[in-house]
Structure formats: C-alpha cells, structure tokens
Amino acid sequence: MLAPCIKIVTNDPCTPITLIWPPRVVLLEVCTAVPEPLDALIMTLGFEPGPLIRAAASYSLKPGASIVVLTPSFKDDRAERAYLELKKICDVLFKDAEVSVQRIEVDLSDFSTAVKQVRKLFATLADRRVAICFTGGMRALCMATYTAYLTIEWRYPPSLEVHLEGRAERIPIPPVHEILKPHVTEERLAVLKLLSEHGSLSMGDIASLMQKDRSTVYRQISSLIRMRLVDQRGRLYELTDLGRMLV
Predict the structure, then answer these.
(1) Pairing, β 236-239 against β 230-233
(2) Do 198 and 171 share a structural domain?
(3) Whole-angstrom Cα distance, residue 24 to residue 144?
(4) Model-level pTM?
(5) How many domains does the chain contain in total?
(6) DSSP H or E run through 74
(7) Given 145, 178, 211, which residue is the final one in a domain?
(8) H helices of 76-212, where?
(9) For residue 146, which of 91, 119, 154, 158 sits 20 to 30 Å off, Cα-Cα?
(10) Same domain, 96 and 31
(11) What's the N-to-C CA distance of the chain in angstroms?
(12) Cα 169 to chain center, whole Å?
C-alpha cells in the first residue's frame, strides 16, 4: 500500500512541497534522510517559509526533538509570517512525535556577541545529533551561526546544508570544524577559559591556576598570540574578540 502524500502550497516562488506521511518518517521525495534520527534541527529564518518547511520535512526527528529557528532580534513582518506558517505546519506534521518548535532571537548589533549567543545554544547540543540548515535570513545571522558551529567540539559531526535562494535545491557543507581541532588544543583552550573567567591574568597567574610550569604556559600563550586569540598588555594577557568567540 502506498503511503499517502500531502501537498503543501506556500508563498515561496519555488515549486510546491510534496511530503510523505506519517510525520515521524516525513521525507522529501527528492531527498535522502540522514541515517540516525536527529535530536535537534537548527534553521535560519528568512522571508519565505518554503525552505524551512522543506528542511523540517527532510529529516527524521526523534520523539521529543527540537526544531530551533534562529532569527535577528529586530522585528520584520515577512519573517514573522514565515515563522508562523512554519510552526503551523510543524504542529500538524509532528503532533504525535512531541517535536517542539522554538525561536531564538540573535542580537546582531555586534558580531562577537552574536557568535557567543549561538555558540551557547550549540554547546548544549554538542553531544547530540544535530542538523544545521541555512534556510534563509540575513547574511550576518548565517555567518554568526556558521562561525559558532566552527568553535564547537561536536561528538557527532552535524549535517550542514545551504538552501539556494529561489530554487528548491540545497547543497551540503563538509565538516570544516574538523580542520580546526589540531590548532586549538586542550591546553590552549584551558588558557582561553581561564582568561574568560578572570579577565586579565599574568603569566604567573596562569601557571599557578593551571598548575603548570611557566615555560609550558609561555609556549601556549605564544601560540595563542600568534593565532590572534590573546593580546598582551604589559605583564597581563587577555582575550581578543576572536578568542572570546571560542569560550
């Protein structure tokens, strides 16, 4: 017996979306589902609901999973309508799976602040199965989201994809975060966390707090300065804006 289909027509200029029912195994006819069901689906909000609905319908979600929509903190009527339409459709698609839909407003007045805000969300999902979909929205929001993704040590590499504007197509993004792992070692990250907690510290302070000899700490600090993650001001060291994004 063939599974019944549902056709959803939105204001998106792309072709209507055909979904296969039931919702816990909802798939786009033209897409392949990820092997494992997701704990969370992260999407960026644009002005059209179509890309978000296609993304939500393309993944298998665990019961109790979350759909998180990232949006700029300032209001836009078009984005508001897109979110409400997405939520209405998801309430129908996932009503038996207890999938929640929530919106997080990201402050884009400062890029470092935006990255830290998104990173805080991602840190809670670092050991979960996650997909991140750039389904529209402001460039600054997408850049902050991608930068935050790069700073997390994920247990399971997230599935990343970009939805092409004006086309019912998407392209996958490789796990670029893996490239960064050799550069920010555990010891260097420990130094960054100390500076984040205490503000400014001397070499002796860092060595004492880490219970390491000064020569070891000096090597780590020197590397972090070359990476532009730490600044030196006299005898004290402090995080740069780039360093603050990592902790």
Answers:
(1) antiparallel
(2) no
(3) 31
(4) 0.73
(5) 2
(6) none
(7) 178
(8) 77-93, 111-123, 139-150, 177-180, 186-198, 203-210
(9) 91
(10) yes
(11) 52
(12) 20
